[in-house]
Write a structure and sequence with these properties.
182 residues, Arc Repressor Mutant, subunit A
Length: 182
């Protein structure tokens, strides 16, 4: 998946400014995709050059003009073509696994510190996801969730389930390191 298709997907839902798109990466899309504002604006320029998006210039007093981006018919075709094509399996690159492959009785304390950092970071992410779920997706709210929000909720659930599994794995590896190297 590339940023191109994330932006096309967001613009397929509604027209937005670049600023609005960047804010989306700080919230809903941030569960599964990260992009800096520079990356978003650069990609919007590329998409506009390729005629996959169009924009309307809106004049503002005391501010630079803003661009409201929307999907062009070519962009809609490109998005639907991409939706029809099978995704390639993404291979995992995990530096923690590389570090753990170097575990020995000589560096057991370093490995434990690394695992503790990962556990702490993961618990922080878990708490963030759970707070978002509690605030926006209570059982009552889920009953009236608009259809365009269902897959965003599904992405959040994937994040929660993934971080829970990752935490369980980290705690298991921590025990394994202690048992094996101490």
């Amino acid at each position: 998946m590339s940023l191109k298709y994330v932006l096309l997907t967001l613009l397929n839902r509604e027209s937005r400014t670049g600023y609005d798109l960047v804010r989306t990466f700080d919230s809903a899309v941030g569960y599964f995709w990260n992009a800096s504002h520079q990356q978003v604006y650069r990609e919007l320029g590329t998409l506009a050059d390729a005629k996959l998006v169009k924009f309307k210039l809106v004049e503002q007093e005391d501010k630079p003009d803003k661009k409201i981006y929307s999907l062009s018919s070519s962009g809609k075709t490109a998005l639907y073509d991409w939706l029809e094509s099978p995704l390639k399996t993404v291979k995992t690159k995990d530096l923690l696994l590389v570090k753990l492959m170097n575990a020995s009785s000589d560096n057991v304390e370093q490995m434990q510190r690394e695992l503790q950092r990962n556990i702490s970071d993961s618990k922080e992410m878990q708490a963030t996801y759970q707070a978002i779920e509690k605030k926006y997706y209570s059982p009552k709210q889920l009953k009236v969730l608009p259809s365009d929000q269902v897959m965003i909720y599904a992405a959040l659930r994937k994040g929660i389930l993934s971080i829970n599994a990752h935490l369980a794995w980290l705690e298991e590896v921590e025990k394994l390191i202690i048992k094996t190297f101490q």
